[in-house]
Amino acid sequence: MVKSAETGALVLLAAMLCAASASADPAATTGDTIDLNELVVTSTGFGEPRATHPGNISKIDADEIDFVKAQQPAELLNRIPGVDIQQGSGVEHLTAIRSPVLTGTAGAGSFLYLEDGVPMRAAGFANVNELMDAMTEEAGGIEVIRGPGSALYGSNAEHGLVNILTRAPSLTPEGSLTGWLGPHGVADLDGTASTSVTSGPVTQGFRGSFALNNDGGFRDHSGYGQQKLQLRYDYSQPDTTVKTTLDTVNINQETAGYLVDPSNPQNIDAYKIDSLRKYNPNPEAYRDAWAIRGAMRIEHDLGNGQKIAITPYGRTNGMNFLMHFQPGEPVEENGHWSGGLLSSYELTLKGGHKIILGFDSEYTDGYLREIQSGAAKPGGYITGVHYNYDVKSTVLAPYLHTIWQLGDATQLTAGIRYEFTRYDYTNYAGPTDTSVSRSVDRFARPGNRVDTYSNPTPKIGLTHVFNDEVTGFVNLAHAARAPQTQDLYRLQKLPGGTDGPDPSTIKSEVLDSIEVGARGKIGRANYELSTYFMKKRNYAFRDSNGDNVTNGRTQHVGIEGELSTPLVWNFDLAASATYARHTYEFTHSSTSFESFVKGADMDTAPRTIANLRLGYAFNEGLGRAELEWVHLGSYWMDSAHTEQYPGHDLFNLRTEYALTGNVTVFGRLENIFDKRYADRADYFQNQARFFPGDGRGLYVGTSLSF
After folding, report:
1. What's the start-to-end Cα distance of the chain, in Å?
2. Cα(614)–Cα(355) distance, integer angstroms
3. Residue 675 in this model has a pLDDT that exceeds 80
4. Rounded (5°) CA angle 542-548-550
């Protein structure tokens, strides 16, 4: 049942069009606006107007990124409808995009994270905390598509995709340096410098950006240091452009685990108690990670409406962390190196029709080691090697994406992608010990094997311009992804026997989606509304008993809206709101603590999410202030609906002022009313667990430009 605390988002969603129709004509400086004429590159890879994109798409531009000055990407992305990223106590996070908050391999494999259209991790080797690799501090923009991506995107573009756009070089020399301080040892410094050189028809542009982030952590024995560097080189002449990027990221974190009340593990108010909420039950936990990525996109205009684009890329990464959430606290080491080529050919026909033919290929060599050095723990958590394996992966994916002008106002988009995935798995830990039961040794290690998957994913969409105020769209999509390598090879013995699950029985996850929506302009207000219905099969996850469930089914229904409009007296308004239901479509019982009932709400699936920003430009545009309301509705903390998190409403204030043309001061007051809330609430095996949210905090800083 929807509680009264959730009605705020429903009211906001219903009121957005009213605000649009009532928006005043006098000009006002608007902050984060919906620009229907801007180009979005995630649509086709070449840049298309947002107005004619066949489905939802949201964009956070560079000005909004600069103003928000987010410490974590979640602060930016949660301003978008349908998105709920729950932050851990550090760089760790869990993502929901048209979904509940998904964990483990389900959370890693359901969302595609891109940088300039190139996946940041290899298919099958995704990380549930993948946004920690993103350079959002100096990004040129972020584009988000909720639900399945187009035929251009394959594995993991299922519930949604996030494309982080690097900042282009400037035509003239420029640079900036931004530093800010905050509570519990927060000290951040980031900067960028750029220039271009033109000689005849050739222009070469250079940009270097960096970010140094330090947070002592508001919880005991927590905090992290993070360093990022990004280089970009652009080359252009009349018929050819080249964009080359190189990224490096390093993270060293002292991890804070779930907060559990040690005197009362069922205390669902533990996150509210000041004497408890800073408590860290896992002071020994840590996470060290690094990543390097490089890509080069080459576009060439062949003339006669023909273009080609090829993008060779390479990446490598590694991580070492203590699995504090598992009995015995083993250490996991994982990583992979990979390389690939994205290629496409675009043909523009008479009448504005377009055909894009593409072929993507990728090769990956990855590894995972899990070793427990401490004493054996009940439940079969043995001392020694749990897993030690390598996986070599090959992905081949031809696709066809077409755009047909059915009339001056109607556009049909249709495409299909066929993705072939091959995993070559080698086990170095020895075979599963079938002579002992699961209670003695719970880990199942398949023998060496090869697994292949073939996934066709057709898409079709229709866009129609009814008038200057309304453009409607309908989008049908079938999405699929091969299992993550950990779904296949990081298995546990069956509860009643000694054999592990057979990887050959694990199928690709598939999702079918239909979306209907509209975008446009009413008066001076821009808006986008969409509603969707999705069904998913072969949902793979690990239940509370540690069993691999591979045949889950879920249903997802929702309505989303976003709006931006100027108001009177230099005020402006931007809002996003979501109402959604995510339900189980299967029945499963694993332990006395957990059950999945068909038709019941999924755990960690708030029905309402909203974000409202009231902006004000003052002193002739030299200053800007923004009051932000963040709403998260109530949700069940476990699949059995044992306990419910009540949701929360937070208020933040941001402001900046240009002292001179080169010096800007800024500040933000987070959680103005010092609300006690949880970034994440969970109920696991009769324990209430939380990542408590931080209290009121003042952050101040300065930006220098030159």
Report:
1. 55
2. 42
3. yes
4. 100
Which residues is 581 bridged to in the sheet? 557
Asked if 2 contacts 601 with a C-beta cutoff of 8 angstroms, the reply is: no
682 has which bridge partners?
A: 689
**Distance (Å, rounded) from C-alpha 528 to C-alpha 578?**
12
Mean pLDDT value of segment 185-203: 96
Q: Characterize the bridge pairing of strands 608-618 and 571-584.
A: antiparallel
Residue 143: CA atoms inside 13 Å, Cβ hemisphere, count? 26
pTM assigned to the model? 0.93
pLDDT at 569: 95
> Which residue, chain included where needed, has tokens 């949700």?
635
The torsion of the CA quartet 194, 200, 202, 204, rounded to 10 degrees, works out to -20
Residues 482 and 469: beta-carbon distance below 8 Å: no
Please tell me the distance from the alpha carbon of residue 405 to that of residue 352, in angstroms, as a whole number: 6
The encoded tokens of residue 510 equal 């598939």
What is the 3-state composition of the chain as percent helix, strand, coil, each rounded to the nearest 5? 10, 55, 35
The secondary structure of residue 57, as a DSSP letter, is -
Q: What is the rounded distance in angstroms from the CA atom of residue 666 to the CA atom of residue 703? A: 8
Tens of pLDDT, residues 238-273: 999 999 999 999 999 999 999 999 999 999 999 999
Strands 648-658 and 141-146: unpaired
Structural contact between residues 519 and 529, judged by C-beta atoms closer than 8 angstroms: yes
Residue 465: strand pairing partners = 471
Going by C-alpha positions, the residue among 366, 587, 611 that lies closest to residue 490 is 366
Please tell me the distance from the alpha carbon of residue 385 to that of residue 430, in angstroms, as a whole number. Answer: 9
- The band of 498, judged by pLDDT with boundaries at 50, 70 and 90, is low
Q: Is the dihedral of CA 78, 213, 175, 246 positive or negative?
A: negative
Those residues whose C-beta lies under 8 Å from the C-beta of residue 408, and which sit 6 or more positions away, are none
- Determine contact, residues 134/164, Cβ cutoff 8 Å: yes
**Average of per-residue pLDDT across 377-381:** 91
Closest CA to 233 of 168, 176, 305: 168
E strand or H helix at 74, and its extent?
helix 74-77
